[in-house]
Design a protein that fits this description.
Bound molecules: phosphoric acid mono(formamide)ester
Oligomer: single chain
Strand content: 5-15%
Distance between the termini: 15 Å
Order of helices and strands: HEHEHEHEHEHEEHEHHEHH
Helix content: 25-40%
Shape: globular
Strand order of the largest sheet: 7-6-5-8-9
């Protein structure tokens, strides 16, 4: 069996194809026993997992919490706004304080790119990156690729996947491009020039229109417009974006049955029409959320082995 030698999950770059397959295999086993976790309940018994989200989250935070609890861990939630960070304590001092209390693992989301990597080098706590700035969101990429293979039943080898929308501000896009390419998919990006990076990440092709994106691909991953990270003036208007790059039923009709993913939260009527997101049979947005718990259980249990 392939050993999994990582104490921290920082980025997709660190994982080999064999290790990714191990994560997927373990996640699949958890899903197969979804209704009955009694066999897994002791995996993290006696361990303490801290959730520290310096940016807002619903899916990543709660799915890590559910995953850790299902594995038997004690879960703590760190809230920066009511912590001694408000008295000027540095994040590194905070980490060392939690380490001294016996925290074993920390799930961290932070606005600074690279911070999870930095903290992991200065602490014995095991870190899982829940999103750092615009750089990485490795667990989202893993659950996306897993959903394409295991739920949408598409082999990733030579699969044409287009990532649509706000690639410029998206850590999800960067991690997805790295992971999907590693697993053999042919990735492209599509969106208005002003919200695509000047240099396409990892030199993936850029498609100019949503029609090309839909017609020339096997899967679409649609991104959220990250209004909180956007300078004003990047888009003439949200209506304009929706008109030219939004996914409506008439756009989907150009390649009926194409699987549709979105990391969520979705800006309905802007990136995807509400009825498409909710009712299109090949919209896998809810499956992504469920699969996220299984993927995060797999990662928590694998890093606990080292
Ligand atoms: N996809 C994602 O990261 O969602 P949250 O911001 O709700 O965690």
């Amino acid at each position: 069996m392939t050993p999994f030698l990582h104490r921290n999950i920082i980025s997709i770059e660190q994982l080999t194809v064999e290790e990714i397959r191990l994560v997927f295999e373990r996640a699949n086993n958890y899903l197969a026993n979804w209704a009955d976790f009694t066999s897994e309940i002791s995996t993290l018994t006696g361990k303490t997992v801290a959730l520290a989200f310096f940016e807002n989250s619903t899916r990543t935070k709660f799915s890590f919490e559910i995953a850790a609890r299902r594995l038997g861990a004690t879960v703590l939630t760190f809230t920066a706004s009511s912590s001694s960070q408000q008295k000027g304590e540095s994040i590194l001092d905070t980490i060392h304080t939690l380490e001294a209390m016996g925290v074993d693992m920390m799930v961290l989301r932070h606005q600074s790119s690279g911070i999870v990597d930095f903290l992991s080098q200065h602490s014995s706590i095991r870190f899982l990156n829940a999103g750092d700035g615009q750089r990485n969101h490795p667990t989202q990429a893993l659950l996306d690729a897993f959903t394409i293979e295991n739920t949408a039943k598409k082999s990733l080898n030579n699969l044409r996947v287009c990532i649509v929308g706000d690639v410029l501000h998206s850590r999800v896009a960067r991690s997805n491009i790295q992971l999907l390419t590693k697993l053999g998919a042919k990735v492209s990006i599509c969106g208005p020039k002003t919200i695509l990076p000047k240099h396409s990440p990892y030199n993936v092709p850029v498609l100019k229109t949503i029609q090309e994106a839909v017609e020339q691909n096997d899967v679409l991953i649609v991104l959220r417009l990250q209004k909180e990270r956007m300078e004003s003036g990047l888009l003439p208007s949200l209506e304009e974006f929706s008109k030219y790059y939004g996914i409506s039923s008439s756009v989907i009709a150009k390649n009926p049955n194409i699987p549709l993913l979105h990391p969520a939260p979705v800006n309905y009527g802007i990136e995807i029409a509400f009825d498409v997101a909710q009712n299109y049979p090949n919209s896998f947005i809810k499956h992504q959320v469920t699969n996220g718990v299984a993927i995060r259980m797999a990662l928590l249990s694998l890093i606990n082995q080292i």
